[in-house]
Amino acid sequence: MGSVIQLKNKINNSYFQLKNSVEDRLMLVEEKIKSKLESKVDLVHKMTNYHLDTGGKRLRALLTLGSAKLCGYAKGTRDINLAACVELIHSATLMHDDVIDNGSIRRGRKTLNKVWDNHSSVLVGDYLLSRCFEMMVDDGNIEVLKLLSSTSSKIAQGEVLQLQHRGEVDMLEETYLRIISAKTAELFAAATKVGAILSDVTSKEKEALEFYGRNLGLTFQIADDTLDYNSELKLFGKKIGKDFYEGKITLPIILLFQKANLKEKETLKDIFLKDNRNESDFNYTLSLIKQYEVIKECYKKANHYINLASNSLSIFKDCNEKNMLENLTSFSLSRDF
Fold first, then answer.
1. How far apart are the C-alpha atoms of 132 and 88, rounded to whole Å?
2. Which has fewest Cβ within 10 Å: 4, 219, 265, 274?
3. Please, what are the domains in the chain?
4. Which residues are CB-contacts of 18 (< 8 A; sequence separation ≥ 6)?
5. Are 147 and 90 in contact (CB under 8 A)?
6. What single DSSP character describes residue 228?
7. In 3D, which of 127, 28, 35, 34 has the Cα closest to residue 78?
8. 11 with 334: CB under 8 angstroms?
9. CA distance 248 to 272
10. What's the mean pLDDT when you consider all of the chain?
11. Is 236 a residue whose pLDDT tops 60?
12. How large is the average pLDDT for residues 321-336?
């Protein structure tokens, strides 16, 4: 037991080490986000304040700040502005996500759409995106503008693709990877590449950090989807079964369907075709996931992307920033918060 706790501490420390290394700039990112969300419209003011109070890991902002530091960016505040921009894109997608999924809880608190309503949540999400584009234009770098605007477009397409395949338990693994690549990995890749664009580095270094971010994002999302069915882990700040009850088809369900026999396949199809799934449905699905050792298979696939992410950093000289980004791959897979 002691060794497990030590391992968890080491994994979580990789996140806190990166956070501590850019703490002063992260505080400025928070201030920038707060100032950009100010509005004279009372409802916008209330909703954005509520959203800010829910907190978050600010992982994408940390990736931009850490990548910029790795590439030697030291003067100016462009890293702060763009880290804030990346976070606002992420926040906007969460607001839209909760409306699409009819989500009710995020980070332990009621979602905006449950405190207010769907219409307000969509519009405030749009408000955040419009603020992002203002910040991109203010930065004045055409490469940054192209990257982040293209990323926003890909995220939206990922949402539509997921909606298109909603309830399909026989979804191809390739389709699932396309969805999470667009919805999650693209913004991770943009966050790390932006950090490189700020500095006078080669195209190879930009591409290496982009590749790192994309594979880190894939690892992060696979781990997140797997945690939703991992009844052995109850430390994570996310109640298991959320994706299941929302009818989302994620990697654990895709792999389970591949392994299940014909009768089990039919039952799974029936479960996910229903408008609402109950606790009995969830327990049945969990029992099959355990029987076919699906969780182990999911983590095995995630490890593939961890290795790709870590190896992509070999182009950079050894330094603290490089080590922290390498260690972050373990955090993305095995975090407990």
1. 6
2. 4
3. 14-325 (1.10.600.10)
4. 62, 66, 324, 325, 328
5. no
6. T
7. 28
8. yes
9. 9
10. 88
11. no
12. 79
